Amino acid sequence: MNSDWKGVFEMIKSFYHFLMKYRHPAPKDEISQFANDVYLDHSFPKISEDYHELSSYLEMNGHYLNSMSIFDEAWQLYLISETK
């Protein structure tokens, strides 16, 4: 492959795809519980990479989320993982 194309095919993972690595059958922390709940939420915007879209969705539909600070913490981890 031509080096000019390097990076063109590198896709940013959606937040949903990133969060799924935290799923656990017996969640021991809030992010794992959040991941489990998002997995069960069939309306969650699975292809989104947009903070505002996800935040708005969770504010209106994320009854399973005890605090938006859990989402904010997961979002920071997402940003760190996508900038590596």
UniProtKB/TrEMBL annotation:
InterPro entries: UPF0346, YozE_SAM-like, YozE_SAM-like_sf. Pfam families: YozE_SAM_like. It comes from the Bacteria. Residues 14-79 form the YozE SAM-like domain. Belongs to the UPF0346 family. This is UPF0346 protein BN000_03790. It comes from Neobacillus massiliamazoniensis.
